[in-house]
Structure formats: C-alpha cells, structure tokens
Amino acid sequence: MSQTSTVRRARKSPAERREEIAAAARDIALAEGLAAVTLRAVAAKVGVAPGLVAHHVEGMDALVADTFGRIVADELVVLLRLMHEQDAATARLGALIDAVLGDEPNDVTFVWVQGWALGARSEPLAERVRAEMDAWQAALAAEIARGHERGEFGDADADAIAWHLLAIFDGLGAHGLVRWRDDPSRADLTRRALAGLLGVPAHALRP
C-alpha cells in the first residue's frame, strides 16, 4: 500500500516576493522595453496570479518607475567604475564616451527613451526620470570639475558642460536605436564637441 505525502511550498516573505517582482520587471524592461512591464507580464514571469503582484506593489506606475530607476542607476554605477579605472580626467571622459556610444545601441538606451515618452503621462515615472538625469548630470559635472582642478581643462562651467554632454549622449543614443548616420561615429562626434567645450584636442579624450 503506497502512502502519499504533501509537500508544502515554502511561502516567501513579502520582501522576497517584492524583490522577485522587481527582478521580473527589470528582465522584461531590458528585453522588451518599459511599455512591456504590465501586471500580467510580470505575473507570468514570476509564475503567480496577477492579483498577487498587485498585492505587493503600490501600483503599476510605481513599479514601472522603480524598474526604470533601478536599471539606469545600476548603469551609472557600472560606468563610473569603468571611468575610475583611468586616472586622467580626459581618459575617464574618453572611456565614458566609448562605453555609452559604442557601435551597437544598448538595452538601457531603449529604457531611457521609453522613460521619457511614458513619463509624459505618468508622474511617478517622470519624477524618477528627472531624478536619474540629475544624478547623471552631477556625476559628469564632478568629473569635469576634477579635470579643471588637476589643470587638464581650462576655465569651464562644469555644470553647463555636463548638461551639454548629457544632451549629446541622449540625442545620439536615441539616434543609434535606429542606426541613423553612423559615419562618422557617434563617439567621434561627441569627442569633437566635448573637446571644444573643454579646450582640449579631441584625441586627448581617449582612454
């Protein structure tokens, strides 16, 4: 006579479940874009009912905003780490240009573009987009100010140049998604523009 036993599935804590939902939303956003982060899509990715996802998040607008923020903040951490492998400010900025404007568009660029578009109709997302843009601008300004202090750059408005560089990254990154005008390379165009703002030769802005 056989005997059956029932194995109960371990119930995850609310914190574990929220992290699982956040990870699923991130995977979806990177693979398909922010617009694909829906209640049903996240639930299917996690393998639970949509109602359970709804129970653990403040709302889909908040989840999309948090997903955007996590992705782009993580990217900035990685890029700053890459820059800090160099000592000279010119080399740091050169490494950043090459990483951001490589030959192929990256998934995070698409997340940024959708963040701007979807944020026009979602204040939680718009607020997070603004915060992450501020973080980028502050990081760029700090590197430019460091270069000035080291005597690598002349007198320069670090905040203003950082905004210029951020606008170039955003615009050319978006162009790269549809592979518009790849010759000369987007990285070289950026080097030339930034060199003019900093008063250095373009070839100096290389890692």
Automatic annotation (TrEMBL):
Top-rank taxon, per record: Bacteria
Segments of the chain annotated as binding DNA: 38-57
Pfam families linked to this entry: TetR_C_6, TetR_N
InterPro entries tied to this protein: BetI_C, Homeodomain-like_sf, HTH-type_TetR-like_transc_reg, HTH_TetR, Tet_transcr_reg_TetR-rel_C_sf
Domain HTH tetR-type: 15-75
MF annotations from Gene Ontology: DNA-binding transcription factor activity; transcription cis-regulatory region binding
Keywords carried by this UniProt record: DNA-binding, Repressor, Transcription, Transcription regulation
Gene3D superfamilies cross-referenced by the UniProt entry: Tetracycline Repressor, domain 2
PROSITE patterns: HTH_TETR_2
Name the record gives this protein: Regulatory protein TetR
Organism: Microbacterium oleivorans
